[in-house]
Amino acid sequence: MRVLLSSLVLSLGLAMSAAVLAQDAETGVQVRKPKLMVVPESMVNRSAAQQYVQMKEQAASRGLLNRDAPQVRRVRAIAERLIAHGRRFNSGAADWAWEVNVIDSPAINAFCLPGGKIMVFRGIVERLQLTDDELAAVIGHEIAHALLQHGRARMSEAVLKNVGVNLAALYFGLGDLGATALAQAAQVAITLPYSRSHETDADLVGIELAARAGYDPRAAGSLWRKMAASSGGQPPQFLSTHPGHANRIREIEANLPKVLPLYEKAAAK
Ligand SMILES: [Zn+2]
């Protein structure tokens, strides 16, 4: 098994190849390097892009896509400034077909699918009355999941869990079994909550992206406080895929000294 696994990884040429998380010696956050990624990034991104098209079509058919032009402009302007710093955490991200859209839904939700497909829900912007800095914290966090390839990691995990049946199919070039496994894995990757370590890493990379783009990274703390306060009644959808905000504010605040100098530098420009 181990031999087959390593030859699989070699044959896909993927093992640890995404370890691009270079940081300044003095500034910037530290995050984990990706683990075993048996599903090719191109496949993950293609699958995500297909799902994104479906979501957009469904929203558009109900007249719910990008309905509020000033809001769409605001969200896109913030996202673009963050995306500009993405290559620091993923060298391929500059070539992604990034997209930013707003769904006219009251849900408190936002996400960025693998490959840079961002969706922001009107509810998170309006019901939490997000400032630009807080909106940058939300979008930065979601972009970080994509840059760090957390969706791909979850898909790879899901495929490897069915290893007995599917590894051979993967190895011999994704036959029917492999394709089925992949479709299931894609579903898993997009619908299940992220792990705690993925959440922490997305928080840290999110505040660094915000800081470098000139948004106050301290807003991540106020964002999560607003999120916690809003979950008094019905918990926001966002929290169901983003578990545990008890420690996250503390963790974010402990890491602010690493990114505040970047913010001050960016804000001074
Ligand atoms: Zn998250």
What does this structure look like?
The chain contains 12 helices and 3 strands. It is mainly alpha-helical and 269 residues long. It has a 3-stranded mixed beta sheet, with helices on both faces. The protein is globular.
Write the layout of secondary structure elements.
Blueprint: H1 2-12, H2 41-61, H3 69-83, E1 99-103, E2 110-113, E3 117-121, H4 122-127, H5 132-147, H6 150-161, H7 163-171, H8 176-191, H9 196-212, H10 219-230, H11 237-240, H12 248-268
Parallel strand pairs: 1-3
Antiparallel strand pairs: 2-3
Bound molecules: zinc ion (ZN).
Largest sheet: 3 strands, mixed
The coarse silhouette is: globular
- State the end-to-end CA separation: 55 Å
Sequence of strands across the biggest β-sheet: 1-3-2
Report the radius of gyration as a whole number of Å: 19 Å
Structural class estimated from helices and strands: mainly alpha
Number of extended strands: 3
Bound molecules: zinc ion
Alpha plus pi helix count: 12
Estimate the helix proportion, in percent: 55-70%
Q: Roughly what fraction of the amino acids lie in strands?
A: 5-15%
Average pLDDT number: 81
Which stretches are poorly predicted, pLDDT < 50 over at least 5 residues? 1-25
Please provide the ordered H/E string of secondary-structure elements: HHHEEEHHHHHHHHH
For the structure shown, list the relevant keywords.
269 residues; mainly alpha; globular; disordered N terminus; binds zinc ion
TL;DR?
By secondary structure, this protein is mainly α. The protein is 59% helix and 5% strand.
